[in-house]
Write a structure and sequence with these properties.
Blueprint (H helix, E strand, L loop, with lengths): L2 H9 L1 H66 L2 H24 L4 H24 L10 H88 L3 E9 L5 E9 L2 H6 L3 H4 L4 H4 L2 H4 L3 H10 L3 E9 L2 E12 L2 E8 L1 H12 L5 H12 L4 E6 L4 E4 L1 H6 L11 H5 L7 H14 L5 E6 L5 E13 L2 E10 L1 H34 L1 H17 L6 H29 L8 E4 H11 L1 H7 L2 E4 L4 E4 L1 H17 L8 E10 L13 E8 L32 H11 L3 E6 L5 E8 L1
Helix pairs in contact: 2-3, 2-4, 2-5, 3-4, 4-5, 16-18, 17-18, 19-21, 21-22
């Protein structure tokens, strides 16, 4: 392998990562070995200590057995109970020592076997000595006693043999453990020393490589700084500025190269540390800040064009935004020369006037067809779309004024000839619509428009033609619908007259007769008859109110000739005066903020707020004094529903809030329908038209009304009127 390749691999960041991983693995391995040796040394020391303790406990155990035997013999021979107590103490101590030995040698099989033997011999010795107790009588020989004595001597001898075997086994085990301990005490410091040396070497190598990389980074930074400062592009780096909630609201200039001075007349040192909206105000003017914030959040590179005026000169720039690390890098290229060259190139294309005219007119006329007509030779060139309008294939016939005349509808031929003659004589143009019969026998309406120009020394006419058959049909349908609408309006006026006079006249007579019966005959009626008479009176009054509300609803139109400047505060003052007596009766109040001046129909807006106030008082809570609050604020059109056709960017938002009985919010749209009621007539009076009138008035003013409520918690009616 090439040495240069090996050098590059050795110097690469990936090689450093691999080497670091290997070094860490080796350090961990050596550390693990050292830990293992230390644990082994610790275990070995514990085993040596255990062996010494076992040796001590063996001697202690057999000392107790000898003392037991001696104490029992003395008690038998001397008949002294003191020795009996001494025997019992030694027996208890020997049992405890035996238990400790069992615990110490539980992992040594040889010792476990010997201890089992000692346990059996101990029990036999105790039995023998206990049997010997009290057997010896003074001055008499006793063969039984001698037998117990011999048996005790035999047991003691066997115990001493087991003791010797255990001591020998323990000494051998101790020698092995001491050898292991000495080996470990030699290796552990050596391993520690090797680990320390290896660590020093590793850290030295790492220090040297870091130092070399630092030098390389400094060299690269110097080279990068030279490139950035010598480039013809603006290069700036921005860091995000966040609000208390952590949202990015701006960027701070962290780096700016010298091109900021060359192109924007801004010193880099003066703009570093400033928000970009302060350093570069055109970021807000061009609505670029949201794009930069979105690029930062989405980690996507974006680019856009911007125009900036510097010292009265218009400059064009192309900006590239790229998120880097914890900020964004902006590279700005000056495109002014290219843009000016493009403008000059467009200025040099004036000779393409014919094509440009055809294309522009074709766009206006739906790009249907075009033609060029040489009036001197009566020859023409028409586009493929023109042929298709005639239901012909492209280039199917040689076009001319006379040839095209064959497609003109017979009833329009005379008009077509007169139009052609007028064109030849005046060289003026105008739109002309006529009918044609296509090759397939279809009737079509076409509209044409042209212009005379000079081309190669001759006067020619260029123009476009459009199939307007559907448009003509639509216009005819619209004319018919307008006639129907006029008839409908006439019928509506007739209805208004009938409702105003013919319907109300019988109603007034009914009310008159009811009034007379009430004055003269009511006392003669039964209680049931009186009740029926009262019901007739209320039904008639409700019928009159219904007719009047219908008249009000039908008379609201969308004509704006009578729009004027209206101060809503004056309207609210008048309404408050009108309802003063009723408000005193129910201990209610109307409070409102300063309301705006709007354009509209005065009596309609007065009726709008009168109906809303009346509605709030009608449906008041039986437990609370009615309080009607009217608030105002200016809002943007985006706050209104999407399905509402907006006529203004800004709207007046007027909210009428009450503390009445409210209604279920699922009925928020339902309540604006004509005759729509949410309660029975016996519960609350009314015709069900009041809110429908409110909606029609607001719509007549190009506004929007909506309601929101919750049963038992009052209602809010919000009116939006164009600013």
């Amino acid at each position: 392998m090439d040495n240069n390749i090996l050098r590059r691999i050795a110097n690469s960041a990936r090689a450093d990562k691999i080497a670091l991983a290997l070094v860490i693995c080796v350090l961990l391995l050596i550390t693990a070995l050292l830990f293992k040796q230390i644990k082994a040394l610790e275990t070995s020391a514990e085993l040596v200590s255990q062996s010494l303790t076992v040796d001590k406990e063996i001697n202690t155990l057999f000392s107790h057995y000898d003392l037991m035997e001696s104490a029992e013999f003395r008690s038998v021979i001397l008949k002294d109970t003191v020795f009996v107590d001494s025997y019992l103490d030694h027996k208890e101590d020997s049992d405890k020592t035996l238990e400790r030995l069992y615990d110490l040698v539980k992992d040594v099989p040889g010792h476990q076997t010997n201890l089992a033997t000692i346990s059996q011999l101990k029990d036999s010795l105790h039995t023998t000595l206990t049997a010997l107790h009290g057997k010896v009588r003074p001055l008499e020989a006793d063969s039984t006693v001698m037998a117990y004595v011999k048996e005790a001597a035999t047991i003691s001898k066997n115990l001493r043999n087991v003791r010797m075997e255990m001591l020998l086994h323990n000494q051998k085990l101790l020698r092995d453990r001491l050898a292991t301990y000495r080996r470990l005490t030699f290796l552990t410091p050596l391993t520690t020393l090797l680990l320390a040396l290896f660590s020093i070497i590793v850290f030295y190598i790492a220090f040297m490589r870091l130092r070399r990389h630092r030098d390389q980074i400094q060299s690269s930074e110097t080279l990068l700084q030279n490139i950035i400062q010598s480039t013809d592009n603006i290069m700036n780096y921005y860091e995000p500025i966040r609000d208390p909630e952590g949202n990015v609201v701006d960027f701070r200039v962290s780096f700016a190269n010298a091109c900021n001075k060359d192109y924007l007349d801004l010193e880099p040192a003066e703009i570093i540390g400033k928000p970009i909206t302060e350093a570069f105000p055109f970021v807000l003017e061009n609505d670029e800040l949201p794009k930069m914030i979105k690029s930062y959040h989405d980690n996507e590179t974006i680019d856009f064009e911007r125009q900036v005026t510097v010292k009265g000169e218009r400059l064009w720039f192309h900006s590239f935004i790229k998120p880097i690390d914890k900020g964004i890098l902006e590279v700005v290229r000056n495109n002014t020369e290219e843009y000016n060259a493009k403008e000059n190139l467009l200025a040099l294309n004036d000779q393409l006037e014919i094509q440009n005219f055809i294309m522009s007119e074709a766009k206006k006329m739906a790009q249907i067809g075009s033609y060029v007509w040489d009036m001197e030779t009566d020859t023409a060139k028409i586009s493929d779309n023109f042929y298709r309008i005639l239901d012909c294939g492209p280039k199917e016939f040689e076009p001319s004024f006379e040839k095209y005349r064959e497609f003109v509808h017979p009833d329009d031929v005379k008009q077509y000839d007169e139009f052609g003659q007028w064109l030849k004589e005046t060289h003026q143009t105008r739109e002309h619509t006529y009918r044609i019969i296509t090759k397939k026998g279809l009737l079509k309406y076409v509209r044409t428009k042209g212009q005379f120009i000079k081309r190669e020394g001759k006067v020619v006419m260029i123009g476009v033609v459009q199939d307007v058959t559907e448009q003509v049909k639509t216009e005819n349908d619209l004319i018919i619908k307008n006639l129907e609408l006029k008839r409908s309006n006439v019928d509506l006026e007739s209805f208004n007259q009938v409702a105003s006079h013919d319907l109300q006249e019988p109603l007034r007579k009914i009310q008159t007769f009811i009034s007379r019966i009430d004055e003269t005959e009511k006392s003669k009626l039964s209680e049931k008859g009186k009740d029926h008479l009262d019901k007739i009176y209320h039904v008639a009054a409700r019928m009159q109110s219904l007719i009047q509300n219908l008249l009000s609803y039908s008379r609201i139109d969308s004509k704006h000739e009578d729009f004027e400047t209206i101060d809503l505060n004056s309207i609210l003052k008048k309404i408050q005066e009108d309802y003063a007596e009723r408000l005193n009766e129910v201990k209610g109040d109307i409070l409102w903020e300063s309301l705006p001046v709007v354009h509209g129909v005065g009596f309609q807006l007065e009726q709008l707020f009168d109906n809303l106030v009346s509605n709030a008082l009608k449906y008041r809570s039986p437990h609370l004094a009615p309080l009607i609050r009217i608030t105002y604020e200016k809002v943007q059109s985006k706050e209104l529903p999407d399905d509402f056709l907006k006529h203004s960017k800004t709207y007046h938002k007027i909210s009428v809030m009450d503390n009445g009985i409210g209604f279920g919010n699922e009925n928020a749209q339902k309540i604006f329908a004509v005759f729509q009621r949410l309660h029975q007539k016996t519960e609350y009076s009314g015709t069900g038209i009041g809110l429908a009138i409110c909606k029609k008035i607001v719509e007549n003013h190009h506004g929007y009304i909506q309601a929101s409520s919750e049963s038992g918690k009052g209602s809010i009616f919000t009116v939006y009127l164009p600013f």
